[in-house]
Design goal:
This protein is an all-alpha fold. It has helices at about 1-15, 25-35, 45-55, 60-65, 80-90, 95-120, 125-135, 140-145, 150-170, 175-190, 200-210, 215-240, 255-270, 285-295, 305-320, 350, 355-365, 380-400, 410-430, 440-455, 460-465, 465-485, 490-515, 620, 640-645, 660-670, 690-700, 715-725, and strands at about 275, 280, 655-660, 675, 705, 725-730, 750-755.
């Protein structure tokens, strides 16, 4: 106890010292990577941005995180992050940057927290290097520059980690409760993903605390109960509220938060199964590859010549279908094939794995000589914590059936912590000529440089040979020189060690800057020369690098004067949804999964936006545009359609109804008017029945329906009924005819009117 008290006093004394001047540039780097030019992302991930617009309008919408101002359906995630985004928009005004700002600040905060966590035990240089590694991990700023949840989630889990470490140092049970309660808060950000750190929390507390087993079990049980209570608090309130007094829980099949948490946002992520109107399907690997290839072909610039665009698509597809050293493109959304080396496959490795070999060597050095029964030093205990965070999360991503590249930010803290702690530990072993352990430093440098060459090799056409050859040559030379000079102690050796660290961080730093250099994508954030496409892999050949997302789509009601369907892939015969993308919206002839393949989970974009949702108009497709509509759903609306709907509204609650969030979000963002996404974000939610729709029409809640496809899942009967009982509105009254437009969903959607007495 005296030792713990002295540690607390030491911490207080340390906090009174001057600011670490070496930390200042690291924080400035993090601020630049996370904040610079976020003001150019006008609407961010439009699915979530539309929700913020809706949440600003009433407490009812705010509490339930309603997607639409009418409170018809919620978004597919819990509300905590969106509460924060809404507060930010309330303070600074409703802008793309104001909903991104909380995540960008969380990214910077995570860098600072990791510095604090690592520095105290492993030393100031370990803290500095860990903070720098965190800041330069490419996927960290890529995600933090969007309004997706993961950056805030990681920050919250690091706050919980700080509380747990403090609980062990001070032997105060209150901090244990606070740490586990914070995980409960994180659960209300992204549900079960927050629980991925629990093995680390349990293992560390059991190993690090010097109390009886009875107390350990009692304390951990109590803390776990509190965590579960906090986790389900919002869910219990929502699920116990009458369904007619709240929005439908988006992306659930039973209108339940708990079902959403443990199904769609839980077990289904591991298994790759997705629920479509109550049934479960698993997308075959072949279908995933076809879909990834199809999505690649959508990334050509809309202003390019037709034949040139076709060639670009073929070139891009050819590049993306080849893994380094040969082999096929792996997995849906470029997330690789499940297996022990998945994190080293193209599409994932360049997001997170740049320092993994060095981390492995660091783990060997940090745990060298440790006996299973202990006793353990503080460094070994905290190393065990980071290892218990790293391994389960790495295993999950190695075997999971469905996730997106940006989820890999969950691996960034333990990798950065081991990079910082390991750099200091391996350097110490090297300088002390500590037997075989002195070879770990040059070995780690050599293998890490080799992996980085492997990661960069598919990008030779975009970044050139020089950086790849430079990293490889310098890595080999520095590792060999350090090995040769192992017995010498002078300043040159110190410079060589520092130079090696600079070399290993050079290309991650460049990759981390790519969302700024090439433009980012708020739907599918990723880093790399093709960061604007959100798909990973070699860069798109599009001429406008700032135009991101899936190009060539238009707002509902726009027609094309210069687009040819001949340049598009056609859906396979027998496609289950008539060539539609998720949500019932046609993808303008893009390739679709074969009949019977699922279309509710694997094909969805982050936040639930389907990948047909990029709808640039002439203003956003110009290369000179100062604002990026990278949310996938361009919030530029069809003004002629909007004017028609507004003029002919006779008091209806909803401006119009459509199959999914793709067509609804732009109008919600731009006007703040209620627009009903009948089937939720992807169009597959079993929300609406024919009888319920009849009742809504009779009550005068909705009369206009914009349909661009045949519907999907539980909507099929509803769509059929609408078409059989409605009056089609002539397109000349509402359809835009701008010659600069590209085809919208289904080329030409249809506007219907229904009035029942």
């Amino acid at each position: 106890m005296k030792h713990m008290n002295s540690e607390v006093k030491e911490e207080r004394t340390s906090n009174k010292k001057r600011i670490d001047l070496f930390l200042v540039p690291i924080v400035l780097i993090a601020a630049f990577l996370n904040l610079f030019k976020i003001w150019t992302d006008e609407y961010a991930n439009a699915y979530y941005t539309a929700a913020v617009k809706s949440m600003l309008q009433s407490f009812h919408n705010f509490f339930y995180a309603s997607f639409d101002p009418g409170g018809y359906v919620t978004i597919d995630k819990p509300p905590v992050v969106f509460w924060i985004q809404t507060i930010s928009a309330k303070i600074f005004g409703f802008h793309g940057w104001s909903v991104i700002l909380p995540q960008a600040l969380a990214g910077i905060g995570s860098v600072l927290l990791l510095y604090v966590l690592v520095k105290r035990t492993f030393g100031v240089w370990a803290g500095r290097f860990a903070a720098l590694a965190m800041a330069l991990t490419p996927i960290v700023p890529a995600v933090s520059r969007t309004n997706n949840i993961d950056s805030m989630l990681v920050f919250t889990l690091l706050v919980a980690t700080w509380m747990l470490f403090r609980a062990v140092r001070t032997a105060k049970f209150g901090w244990v409760l606070a740490a586990f309660a914070m995980i409960g808060v994180a659960f209300n950000m992204k549900m079960l993903q927050a629980y991925m750190v629990l093995p680390a929390f349990y293992v560390f507390y059991v190993v690090a605390t010097k109390i009886t087993w009875k107390k350990k079990i009692s304390f951990l049980t109590t803390a776990t109960v509190l965590m579960l209570a906090v986790s389900v608090s919002w869910a219990v309130v929502v699920d116990s509220t009458s369904a007619d007094k709240r929005p439908y829980m988006g992306s659930s099949q039973t209108n339940s938060v708990l079902e959403l948490a443990f199904g769609y946002n839980g077990i289904n992520r591991l298994t790759g199964n997705t629920s479509v109107t109550g049934s479960s399907h698993k997308q075959p690997a072949q279908t995933q590859q076809q879909t990834a290839s199809s999505e690649t072909k959508q990334n050509s610039n809309s202003s390019a010549d037709s034949s040139q665009s076709s060639n670009q698509r073929k070139s891009s597809s050819s590049q993306k279908m080849q893994a380094p050293g040969g082999g096929n493109q792996n997995g849906m959304f470029n997330t690789g094939n499940p297996g022990p080396f998945r994190l080293f496959q193209k599409g994932l490795s360049d997001q997170i794995s740049w320092l993994l070999p060095f981390v492995i060597f660091s783990i060997v050095g940090l745990f060298a000589g440790v006996k299973f029964k202990g006793p353990y030093t503080t460094k070994q205990k905290e190393s065990l914590f980071w290892l218990a965070w790293l391994l389960p999360v790495a295993v999950f991503f190695s075997i999971a059936g469905f996730f997106h590249q940006y989820y890999l930010i969950m691996l960034a803290p333990p990798i950065a912590a081991f990079a910082g702690a390991g750099a200091v530990a391996l350097w110490s072993m090297y300088k002390q000529h500590n037997g075989w352990k002195s070879w770990l430093l040059p070995g780690g440098i050599l293998t890490t440089a080799a992996l980085q060459v492997y990661i960069m090799s598919p990008y030779v056409s975009s970044i050139g040979v020089a950086p790849i050859a430079g990293v490889g040559a310098l890595g080999v030379i520095l590792a060999l020189v350090l090995a040769i000079r192992k017995q010498r102690k002078n300043s040159l050796t110190n410079y060589l060690g520092a130079a090696a660290m600079v070399v290993l961080l050079a290309m991650p730093a460049y990759w981390a800057m790519t969302p700024i250099i090439y433009g980012g994508n708020s739907m599918l954030p990723s880093a790399g020369p093709d960061s604007s496409s959100g798909m990973g892999g070699p860069p798109s050949t599009a001429t406008n690098s700032k135009q991101s997302g899936f190009n060539g789509m238009q707002p509902p009601g726009s027609s094309s004067g210069n687009s040819s369907s001949n340049n598009q892939m056609q859906p396979p015969s027998g496609s289950s949804n008539g060539g539609q993308m998720p949500g019932g919206s046609s993808n303008n002839g893009q390739m679709q999964p074969p009949s019977g393949s699922p279309n509710s989970g694997e094909m969805q974009m982050p936040g639930g936006s389907s990948n047909n949702s990029q709808m640039p108009n002439s203003s956003s497709s110009k290369s000179s545009s100062s604002k990026r509509k990278s949310g996938g759903m361009n919030a530029e609306v069809n003004k002629k359609l909007l004017n028609y709907l507004t003029k002919n509204n006779t008091g209806e609650k909803y401006l119009f109804a459509t199959t999914d969030s793709t067509s609804a979000a732009p109008y919600i963002i731009k006007t703040g008017e209620p627009v009903m996404a009948m089937g939720g974000f992807s169009g597959s939610d079993p929300i609406l029945t024919v009888s319920k729709l009849k009742a809504m029409i009779k009550k005068g809640e909705v009369k206009y329906f914009y349909l661009s496809g045949m519907g999907k899942g539980g909507q099929s009967d509803v769509i059929t009924w609408i078409k059989e009982n409605s009056k089609e509105i002539p397109s000349s009254k509402w359809q835009s005819t701008s010659s600069s437009s590209q085809q919208g969903p289904s080329g030409n959607g249809t506007l219907y009117e229904i009035t029942l007495k």
